[in-house]
Amino acid sequence: MQKESVRVKLFLLCILITSGISVQCQENRATIIDSMIHRANRLGIFNGNVLIADKGKILYQKAIGWTDPTHKTRLTQQHRFHIGSIAKEFNAVAIMLLKEQGKLNLDDKVAQYLPELPAWAGKIGIINLLQYTSGLPDVKWKTVKSDADNMQDLMTLQKLDFEPGTNYAYNNNNVFLQRRIIEKITGKTFNAFVEEQLLKPCNMTNARVDPPASDTLLTTAFNNEGKANSLIIPISGWTAVTLDDFYKWSQSISSFRLLSPETTKSILVPVRPNTQSGLGGGYMEGEQVMRHIHDGSAFNYNALLVSDPPKQRTVILMTNNKQGNLYELNAAIQAILDGKPYKQPKKPVTGLLQKQMDKLGAKALIREYEKLKKQPSQEYDFDSESSLNEIGYAYLGKNRVDDAILIFEYNTKLFPASGNVFDSLGEAYYKKGNTKKALLNYKRSLELDPGNTNAKALIETLGK
């Protein structure tokens, strides 16, 4: 009996010691993250709010910086941020909620609910709106000032950009019509439906749909020159959130609080590689969400959600002073949480070069990059592939594909061991229509990064 008692005591002591080490380890990681976030703030590359949960518990939660460019009011965790495209999750979930209730079918045509629209509405299914395969052009942001303006533009639209289902174009008219269909079916405004059927069930008590500029807890977005953005959002239906409410929303997706696993999967997994789903992107195994990732921007607001349910880990970053580095910050946070070496975030070189993009071609921009790299500076990031990759994608977004290819090719020479840069180069060649070189670079990307499911899928497609 005495020996058994000693064994029990030793076992309990081991548990206490292990628990103590685990708690201390978590505390150390929180301290390292805090130091990194403060350093980023001092460098002027992060002003915003952060929430990090690991192993099911909130490990770190911080508000750092200012609510607006006057630098008079400090951010708090109660402040709300616009989250850009992440707010599109609310209409995607709302559509699928109505589907589960039997109030619509994804194959239903837009014309069934909005018969006043031109004949093209009879070709577009709700599924096309969710997958951004409708063929609709984007909102005319320069002239549209309201929902009524945008509906009038659609009323006069005579032709789609492509036949529904044959191509992909990520734009906000798909989102706009989703919201109008929800209103038609429910007899409520989209904003009211979101508040009653999504925010309330998830106990998101501080989120607001289209908060007014007079909202004292709504942050103001501003640029590096200290100029505030005008808070005029042409089309309605954008939910602004606090850290706590954003975390509740993320948890509601992975725990299937609002939708079934099967329905969640249909708006989590993109319809094809290099595209967005209703929930941004991610994947499931069986009935478990394995990953949910989504980023969004609006003016100088920028937000990133990275959810890793198997690790019970969530990273939320929100800023009202966009620097284009949230993925870099997340990479450092993930490395710290995993006990791995990490890179201290630095000022992106992109900011120094982006103003010259419209004037210079890729060759001249590369020469400027090389000049800057020779200047001694510990603040700017020349050690990461992300700066040039961002410039390459900026060229790609302007349909300057040849310039994008030159930038990506240069980046592969600087970072030959990175699967990501070869993936980007493959994407540029794919957009140019050079399938041979696209396939070559996707294969190289997969060799360097066997976990690149995007490259794997495209290799199969191109191989056919």
Choose one word for the global shape: globular
- Measured by DSSP, the beta-strand proportion falls in 5-15%
Cα distance, first to last residue? 71 Å
Determine the fraction of residues in helical runs and give it as a percent range.
Answer: 40-55%
Strand order of the largest sheet: 2-1-9-8-7-6
Q: Structural class, from secondary structure content? A: alpha+beta
DSSP E strands, number: 11
Q: Helix and strand string, N-terminal first?
A: HEEEHHHHHHEEHHEEEEHEHHEHHHHH
CATH topology-level name of the largest domain: Beta-lactamase
Q: What does the radius of gyration come to? A: 24 Å
Protein name: Serine hydrolase
InterPro entries: AmpC-like, Beta-lactam-related, Beta-lactam/transpept-like, TPR-like_helical_dom_sf, TPR_2, TPR_rpt
Domain Beta-lactamase-related: 45-329
TPR repeats: 419-452
